Amino acid sequence: MNNAVAGFSKLSKEEKINWIANEYFANPSEAIATIKQYWNNDSKLQQLHDEFIENTITNFYLPMGIAPNFLINGKYYSVPMVIEESSVVAAAAKSAKYWSTRGGFKATVLNTEKIGQVHFIFKGETAKLQSFFNATKDNIIASTQSITKNMQKRGGGILSLELRDKTTELENYYQLHVTFETKDSMGANFINSCLEQLAKSLKKEAQNYPDFTEVEKDITIVMSILSNYVPNCIVRAEVSCAVEDLAENLPAVRQGKFNNPQEFAEKFVQAVRIAEIEPYRAVTHNKGIMNGVDAVVLATGNDFRAIEAGVHAYASRNGKYSSLSHAKIENGIFTFWMEIPLALGTVGGLTSLHPLVKMALEILGKPSAPELMQIVAVTGLAQNFAALRSLTTTGIQEGHMKMHLNNILNQYQATSEERKAIAKYFENNTVSHASVVELIENLRK
To answer: Any idea what DSSP says for residue 445?
Structure first.
């Protein structure tokens, strides 16, 4: 079997599928049937999906669920979430309902600046480069006018341009560090187009600058690219209530796991503090936050890889990876909050192409980019609250494994009679994969 192939991208969709099926599967016809089973019956809709990426052979489905009852800044939202992990949507919905009776979530966009950089090599004196930059900065910015004019009409565009000396870290290396406002657009294409034009203008201005030597005029542009690290595109989400109000509908207090809500609050705060100082815990702690964040980012057609990269860089900004969320008890008030960087868009990209993305944004009331930032951050905080509440009370596995039970039953194609018997058994027994399989096998003997 030869798994190398020449000209794969030039093959038709059918030819690609046939090659994959015959090259990798013992039963090619079964593989082809599985691939085509996930095609959309609407040929126009399928073509739309085919053209999102290259070398498409089929669609890969993820569940899309709804977490209702999110009260954010006095307004209710039903939040669409796209994720494969069981219990995430249920946990978010549970947290949303819990806090809806305690004043809801407060969210504030602190800043919306985005970053791009032109990376270049200059073999000359730094002082001369700085003088050159001061003299030509306005011309360099003006060269982007044809690109920025429409964004400027919407209140966006280039906010600042500065020269950064990085020669102590890498020989002859400098940057043009640019901040942008892109309003409701995520702005990746806009930012990159601006940066490439700034790079061209920088090189042209250098070649015409009379005080440069021939060597200094020969600036080498290494690359021009946006940054997914956006520490000035920040949203804050928080919840707070009197400590005694935590008791209502709190299973741990009801079941006697705590004597009073103060004990629960103190243990919760301690759990957060552990994540603040212990990186091994912080990574898993923040992963739980991202369960909520990524699910909404995916549902709304945004780039979850960019969000992940930026958020985790932000969690390390002080030189040590730490918790994104924080908690405190002051004067009898419990407060739980976080600030995270989120560069999101509600126009452009998939937001105007993918039917379910358009539907998700419709469900959210067609939010602006800052509103979506607030919704996404709140969902992440809600997810984190649910996880910490479980961890500090019943343990994470009790609820998770009950949700996971359905996946195991589907895997073993359990009948309706078997499902009833299994559900009854695990009302009073701990769910584990091995125990479920053993019970299924016993039922089938």
So the answer is: -
